[in-house]
Amino acid sequence: MVNPQMVMYEEEFNQIQAVVDRLVKEANAKVVFIVDKNGQLIAQSGDIENLDSTSLASLTAGNIAATGGMAKLLRENEFATQFHEGEKANIHIQLVGKRVILVVIFDARSSLGLVRLRVKKASEELNSIFEGLLRKVQEPGRDSPFAEITDEDIDNLFND
C-alpha cells in the first residue's frame, strides 16, 4: 500500500522537533534526524553544519527500502532496527510506527546501549505524535490545508 503524502502541522512539527532536540542531548549524539520513507527530511538536530543531511536522508530511506526487501526474502515483516559501526561514527536507524525513520549518529562519547535506551523512549513519543497527527488529518469535516486555493489563484501565481 502506498503511503499518501504526509501533512504536517506546526504544532506536531514543534513536538517532533522537541523530541529530536532532547534525544541529541540524552543520547549524547552528534546528530539526530527524522526522515519519511520517501527520503524527505522532517526534522534534524545536532551538529548538522558539515553534514549533507538531504543526501543522508535519501540514502537512509533507500537503505530501509533495501532492508525491507531482504526481510521479505527471509519471510520477515521488517527489520525495524539497524546499526552501522564505523571507525569514527556510528549510525543507529529505527523505523518508527512503520511511518518514519529515526536516525541517530554518534561517536565514542556515547554508547550503543545508551542510544538504544533513549531511542526506545523517543520512538514511543514520536509514534504517539504521528498517531495523533493521523487522527487529526482524518477528522471528518477537516478541510485540506490547500482547500482555499483555487485554480484562479494558481493561474495568477504563474502569470506576470
Explain how this protein is built.
- The chain has one domain (10-158): Dynein light chain 2a, cytoplasmic (Beta-Lactamase, 2-Layer Sandwich).
- The model has no long low-confidence stretch (mean pLDDT 86).
- Helices cover 45% and strands 19% of the residues.
- It is built from 4 helices and 5 strands.
- A 5-stranded antiparallel sheet has the order 2-1-5-4-3, with helices on both faces.
- The protein has helices spanning 10-26, 53-73, 112-137, 151-158, and strands at residues 31-36, 41-46, 81-85, 90-96, 100-106.
- It is an alpha+beta fold and 160 residues long.
Concise overview:
The protein contains four helices and five strands, in the order αββαβββαα.
CATH topology: Beta-Lactamase
- What is the chain-wise order of helices and strands? HEEHEEEHH
User: Can you tell me the CATH class?
Assistant: Alpha Beta
Mean pLDDT: 86
Q: How many beta strands in the DSSP annotation?
A: 5
Q: How does the major sheet shape up?
A: 5 strands, antiparallel
Q: Count the DSSP helices.
A: 4
CATH superfamily: Dynein light chain 2a, cytoplasmic
Uncertain stretches: none
By secondary-structure content and strand pairing, the structural class works out as alpha+beta
Q: Which outline best applies?
A: globular
State the helicity in percent bands: 40-55%
Read across the widest sheet, the strand sequence of neighbours is 2-1-5-4-3
| Annotated CATH architecture | 2-Layer Sandwich
Q: Proportion of β residues?
A: 15-25%
